[in-house]
Design a protein that fits this description.
By secondary structure, the chain is mostly helical. Helices cover 62% and strands 10% of the residues. It folds into two domains: 2-160, Ribonuclease iii, N-terminal Endonuclease Domain, Chain A, CATH 1.10.1520; 165-234, Double Stranded RNA Binding Domain, CATH 3.30.160.20. β2 (196-203) and β3 form a beta hairpin. It starts with a helix and ends in a 10-residue tail after the last helix.
């Protein structure tokens, strides 16, 4: 047990963390494979803390982006948050923190590259956030996470803000699902000199966004913005909502 404590203490000191309840840190860094090989361990793996940390990160970043991007529309805010909480981003932060070597992990998992696996590193980062939130509060999480996020936010701003919504949606859809969004004009109302067009965008078989505009191009961009605001739905994290 002393060896485990030393690993936890070294990790916390290296990364500017101070836990009142050190057991929370230990749990955050425990992969389920470790418990499979250590029947005498009397604590749980990090999956419940991962669940909590995911929700805490979503709220904290939503609040931060809302306050710091007062002129950004909903779709842009959602796309920025999605870029910050995706697996690639959080696994990069975990690598920066040197999470992999600190994970309590079964030998079989280690031998198959578990310490470098992006999904495992992302989950451990989220678990650390959940542990810090339980040990202290949301302010402590913000103080620890947001400085690390600044470089990622700068990259996300280039990716999200400097590209039009249709381009962003296409890149996200192709990266997440390997498909290209399809746009369809479903209505054109009003007199010829002042028509309002309504366009829907589908990703795969799912209707994912709808927008209106004075021409088909603007309506399509607004449909893409609507789809970006529903990114969790069409990426499969929630069932797509029905559209009228």
């Amino acid at each position: 047990m002393q060896n485990v404590d030393e690993i936890m203490d070294a990790f916390a000191q290296r990364n500017g963390l101070s836990f009142r309840d050190r057991a929370l840190l230990r749990t955050a860094l425990t992969h389920r494979s470790y418990l499979n090989e250590h029947a005498d361990v009397d604590w749980e793996d990090n999956e419940r803390l991962e669940y909590l940390g995911d929700a805490v990160l979503d709220f904290m970043l939503a609040d931060y982006l809302y306050e710091n991007f007062p002129n950004a529309p909903e779709g842009e805010l959602t796309a920025l948050r999605a870029a910050l909480v995706r697996r690639e981003t959080l696994s990069r932060l975990a690598i920066r923190l040197d999470v992999g070597p600190a994970l309590l992990m079964g030998h079989g998992e280690v031998e198959t590259g578990g310490r470098q696996r992006s999904a495992t590193l992302c989950a451990a980062f989220e678990a650390l956030v959940g542990a810090l939130y339980l040990d202290q509060d949301l302010s402590a999480v913000s103080d620890w996470v947001l400085p690390m996020m600044q470089a990622e936010l700068a990259m996300a701003k280039v990716e999200v803000v400097d590209k039009d919504p249709k381009s962003r949606l296409q890149e996200m859809a192709q990266a997440a699902l390997g498909v290209t969004p399809r746009y369809r004009t479903v209505a054109a109302d009003g007199p010829d000199h002042a028509k309002t067009f309504r366009v829907q965008v589908a990703i795969g078989d799912a209707l994912c966004g709808e927008g209106e505009g004075p021409n088909k191009q603007v309506a399509a961009q607004n449909a893409a913005l609507d789809a970006l605001a529903r990114v969790d739905e069409w990426r499969g994290e929630r069932k797509p909502a029905a559209h009228d």
